[in-house]
């Protein structure tokens, strides 16, 4: 444990001096001055309280995603926790394509390996349902940092009425767009001439396509480089599934139709090959013409850096690329803004088996991924130390810093995160941008027609099957209908293999959450 010297936490992080042999400790009182709107109290997982812990001789094995997303903050805060408590921290990072297997193998083989895991809530059916995780201690559930977490994200840590996880992220998809493109009077006039309607923030996926086309393949921001229309996640072994679902949502999620989005809740018939999903895949095939030259194999990390460096006009994604674009060194800082993901005026009604025309735009914001969560395996011999670390990693001091680093993948999930003044004062946002950003997040999370991510056992199998099908259509190896028919058949096989009644019960719980107003 370390005693003595107090430093300014934000400055200290910013210059990157935290490292082995640093004889200093960060007290909560410094944080009050640096991030006052985040400060609740000198809580149980604060720097000062962790400095009182002695975990000398304890080794914590933690598995997380490869840096920068999640791996970056985990490594940073593990090093800090080690400095404060004396614990030996072994952080194992792996690519997303390997994470599920690496997390699950010790559970399957009965070989205790991990003291803490960082994973998406969509895997809850595979990790929480079988009892592989310890329940979160009551004292943690009573802490201010837990109580300030939005209910929508706390709910995603539950299974069977018990809490097995701790949120460290708040995910959702929304539109990020370039203000210097949309607000340019000359471009507005040219767009009007070409498309016959005013240039504006895209309200529908049809408008999104037109705006992407207009701003594709020329240097419209005068930086001497060619810009492109749309930046999207397209790598099938990464995040293609979520990029496709956000496109499908407004065509599929009819506000007057209940009973499921991915499946029919009554019999688990897959809905992913119905006309709304097919329309979305047709749109996605068209939009490929407006990607950067290497944009057909983009992962989330690629999107973050591509949009953040000013390579494109539009993206619909998590907060990360937006935050990267608003970073201190970004060439497009305060030249971007946020809005709800595009909607649709035609929505497939599966009850009547026809398209309904909407006088107003149908929105269906996608709570994509749901936000990374942290858990402690039930077979860990170091549960107290592990929960202390997870509480420390997600304390308000650390969270405030992590929020401002786009590549970290930590998005707003606590009440204080939605205060525009935080983003103005500590992240350098223009006031207008900060207000539009935080308002967009709140509208997305509170929308009555929102769509929750797939959260049932064998989630990875379903995700991989749909991603493969979408990729086949994007590469012209199958028509959209053919590809989605194949995926639907594979989803049927997965459901039967796992157990129809088990999957039906798990999906019913997801539908209850989604249809709760």
UniProtKB/TrEMBL annotation:
It is found in: Periplasm. GO terms for cellular component: periplasmic space. It comes from the Bacteria. InterPro entries: Bact_solute-bd_prot1 (IPR050490), SBP (IPR006059). Keywords: Signal, Transport. Its main location: periplasm. It holds the Pfam family SBP_bac_8. Belongs to the bacterial solute-binding protein 1 family. This is ABC transporter substrate-binding protein. It comes from Thioflexithrix psekupsensis.
């Amino acid at each position: 444990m370390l005693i003595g010297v107090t430093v300014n936490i934000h400055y200290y992080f910013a210059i990157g001096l935290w490292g082995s042999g640093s004889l200093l400790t960060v007290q909560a009182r410094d944080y009050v001055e640096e991030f006052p709107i985040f400060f609740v109290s000198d809580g149980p997982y604060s720097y000062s309280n962790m400095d009182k812990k002695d975990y000398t001789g304890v080794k914590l094995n933690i598995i997380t995603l490869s840096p920068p997303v999640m791996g970056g903050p985990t490594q940073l805060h593990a090093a800090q926790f080690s400095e404060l408590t004396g614990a030996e921290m072994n952080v194992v990072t792996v690519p997303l394509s390997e994470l599920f297997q690496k997390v699950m193998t010790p559970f399957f083989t009965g070989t205790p390996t991990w003291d803490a895991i960082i994973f998406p809530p969509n895997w809850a059916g595979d990790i929480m349902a079988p009892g592989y995780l310890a329940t979160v201690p009551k004292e943690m559930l009573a802490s201010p940092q837990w109580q300030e977490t939005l209910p929508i994200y706390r709910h995603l840590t539950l299974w069977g009425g018990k809490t097995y996880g701790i949120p460290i992220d708040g995910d959702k998809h929304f539109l990020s767009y370039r203000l210097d493109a949309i607000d340019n009077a000359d471009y507005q006039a040219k767009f009007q001439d070409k498309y016959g309607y005013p240039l504006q923030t895209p309200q529908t996926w049809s408008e999104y396509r037109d705006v992407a086309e207009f701003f594709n393949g020329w240097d419209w921001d005068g930086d001497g480089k060619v810009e492109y229309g749309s930046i999207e996640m397209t790598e099938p072994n990464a995040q293609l599934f979520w990029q496709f679902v956000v496109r499908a949502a407004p065509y599929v999620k009819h506000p007057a139709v209940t009973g499921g989005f991915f499946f029919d809740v009554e019999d688990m018939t897959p809905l992913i090959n119905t006309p709304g999903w097919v329309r979305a895949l047709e749109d996605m095939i068209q939009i490929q013409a407006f990607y950067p030259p290497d944009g057909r194999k983009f992962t989330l990390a690629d999107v973050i850096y591509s949009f953040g460096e000013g390579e494109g006009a539009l993206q619909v994604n998590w907060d990360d690329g937006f935050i990267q674009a608003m970073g201190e060194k970004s060439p497009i800082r305060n030249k971007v803004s946020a809005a709800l993901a595009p909607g649709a005026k035609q929505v497939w009604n599966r009850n009547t088996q026809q398209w309904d025309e909407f006088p107003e735009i149908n929105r269906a914001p996608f709570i994509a991924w749901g936000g990374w969560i942290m858990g402690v395996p039930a077979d860990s011999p170091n549960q107290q130390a592990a929960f202390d670390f997870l509480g420390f990693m997600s304390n308000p001091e650390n969270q405030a810093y992590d929020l401002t680093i786009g590549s970290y993948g930590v998005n707003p999930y606590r009440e204080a995160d939605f205060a525009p003044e935080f983003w103005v004062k500590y992240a350098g946002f223009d006031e207008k941008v900060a207000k539009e950003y935080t308002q967009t997040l709140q509208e997305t999370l509170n929308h009555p027609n929102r769509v929750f991510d797939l959260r049932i056992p064998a989630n990875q199998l379903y995700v991989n099957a749909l991603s493969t099908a979408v990729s086949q259509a994007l590469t012209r190896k199958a028509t959209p209908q053919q590809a989605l028919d194949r995926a639907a058949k594979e989803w049927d096989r997965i459901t039967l293999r796992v157990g129809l009644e088990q999957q039906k019960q798990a999906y019913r719980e997801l539908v209850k959450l989604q249809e709760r107003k």
